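Input/output pair, single chain:
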Amino acid sequence: MKIIRFSTDKKPFYGVLDKDTIKVIKGNPFLYIRYTGITFNLKDVKLLAPCVPSKIVCLGVNYRSHAGEMSSQIPQSPLIFLKPPSAIINPEEKIIYPEMPHRVDYEGELGVVIKKKASHISAASALGYVLGYTCFNDVTARDLQKLDGQWTRAKGFDTFAPFGPCIETEIDPTDVPIETYLNGELKQKSSTTDLIFSVKEVISFISHVMTLLPGDVIATGTPAGIGPMNPGDTIEVKIAPIGVLRNYVAKPSAVAE
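Output:
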């Protein structure tokens, strides 16, 4: 099942996508799914980020291949950090290249969407707290990441958290293919089989640090192949069972005096 969030006449709705037809859901999909009987055609709506998280928890250095390309040691426990909800943008929207950094990178990732409140849960039960999975781009100001040592500024700029286009509920997260394309050229190609800490281990670990709430998003880390983006570029994160998250890199708008 592909759950989407969309707008028509500026009002947001949740729906289930069936080919090009959207079946509108009453309320939200986190407790249960009930249909209103209203439908829309996909071409007539604007796709939004598929949920509204209270927080975005991200994993650093969680692919063996990425640890290798960054000359990083394999972490002994999951390395987590936060992106603010203010960084979220929708599919097909612009990633704004800030004036401060000199290098902004793409990082294609599998995103996990939490279904129900999770606190101090076991890895064995963790997948029962998952609504589904989405494509995520952990946009990163690489030079600022190295300069600061901690990652809040490098990861937290406005527009640095694109995700979507949907939440796919029927995925086995142990072997999910991930590809990232820059201007149509394949840059990252891997699978979650290369994860250092599995999806269920990550969810359990985070839940022992902070309570996860319905709609929260976990970005599970990026494989090897990271690289810079520049204004004018198109970046696509493709996870075949989910779809393609496409965004465009742009210069910042002129600031009024």
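Residues 2-48 form a domain with the SH3 type barrels. fold (CATH 2.30.30.370). Residues 199-207 form the longest helix (9 residues).
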